[in-house]
Each structure stands twice: as structure tokens, then as C-alpha cells.
Amino acid sequence: MFTDQLFARKFRLMTPLLLTAAMLLSACQGTQPAISKAAYDLGPALASNTLGSAAPSFLLNDIRSSSALESNAMWYRLYDQPQQLKAFAYARWTSTPAELLSLRLKQRTAQHGGRVLQRSNGEQTLPVVQIELDEAAQHFSSATQSQFILSGRILIQSPGRPVTVKAFSLQQTAGSDAAGGAAAAQKTADELINIVWQQVRHSERSTP
User: Fold this and answer.
1) Would you give per-residue pLDDT tens digits along the chain (208 residues)?
2) How far is CA 8 from CA 17, 24, 28, 178, in A?
3) pTM, rounded to two decimals
4) Is the Cβ–Cβ distance between 175 and 181 less than 8 Å?
5) Are the beta carbons of 129 and 154 closer than 8 angstroms?
6) CB atoms within 10 A of CB 155
7) What residues contact 207, with CB distance under 8 A and at least 6 apart?
């Protein structure tokens, strides 16, 4: 009996202290700043000789992409779950991969003396380029090693010629985090731009 009374008294004395501690903990958690996501693009399109000679001019349709790439999520695949596409929690693109690639293609082409026009207001004598993206994701082979993979197709319609299709699957070493993936994405984008130019030049030489 005496023990029960002593316990009850201690409980009554401790209850206000426990409530105060809970309120302080809740207040501290409520004032913690939210963790913001790092935003990446394909970097500034600085003058470079890595893309070879002068660029051709062509018409560009809107780049098509798989449904997963229609957001600004930065995707990756793990070595033990290769069929599972996951998004980095604290990193994102500033726009969709298709929009970033389209902008870089226009910038790079203009830097090298070419023109990229929209089909709606472009010259009908120029080749029409359609890019389709299937994959733009970082593939991890281990916890510290990965490759950024960009894959899809380039379709080119030149006046008086059938449509030509060029499949591509490009990859660059991407390291262990989203920043490394963004840097590798820039390199694969420039590699793809070079392939687009080559295909446009080839279509122009094949035009009767």
C-alpha cells in the first residue's frame, strides 16, 4: 500500500516534466529547416572543339520520351535491383531530360554555325529530326561505381527520302552520387549531339 502511494506521488510529480519535454521536442522538430533538393542541368554550353566541325541546319520536332522521363526526377538503378527505377531523394533536374537535351542541342548547333528550327516555322527543304528517349538514368554496378546511360533513337526525314532510324545507347562513368550522374549526363548529351549532326550530314549527302 505504501509502495503504491509512493509510486502514484512520483508519477504526479513527473507528469508535468514529461509533458514539457514532449512540447519542447515537438517545437524543435517543427522549426528544423526542410532539406532542399539540389537542382542540376547540363551545364553551360561553353565553346568546345569536342563536337568536331561546323554543325548542319535542320528542323527539330519536340523530343519524345518514356513516361518516367516526363518529370524532373533524377533516376537510378541499383546493381541488385536492375529492373527497379528509383529517384534520388535530394536531387532533381531543373527541367525534364527532353527539355534539357533540346536546349543543349540548339545551343551547341548555333555555336558551331548551324541552325535548329521548329518544324512549324522552318524551311521545308531541311531534314527533320525526331529524337526518342527510352532511358536517361544512372546505373550502379556497386555502391561507389556507376554509369550514366542515355538510350533511344534518332529518326531523320529528308525531303524525297524515306525515314532513317539510328538507335543509340551511350554511357559515361558517373561515380557514386547524383552530382557525378549530372556530369556524366552532360557528356552523353554532347556525344548524342555529335551523332545527330553526323546523321543529318549523311541524310543530306543521300538526298537526290
Assistant:
1) 544 554 445 445 444 444 444 444 444 444 445 567 899 999 998 766 555 678 999 999 999 999 999 999 999 999 999 999 999 999 999 999 999 999 999 999 999 999 999 876 656 789 999 999 999 999 999 999 999 999 999 999 988 888 999 999 999 999 999 999 999 999 999 999 999 999 999 887 765 5
2) 15, 25, 30, 56
3) 0.80
4) yes
5) yes
6) 17
7) 158, 159, 160, 161
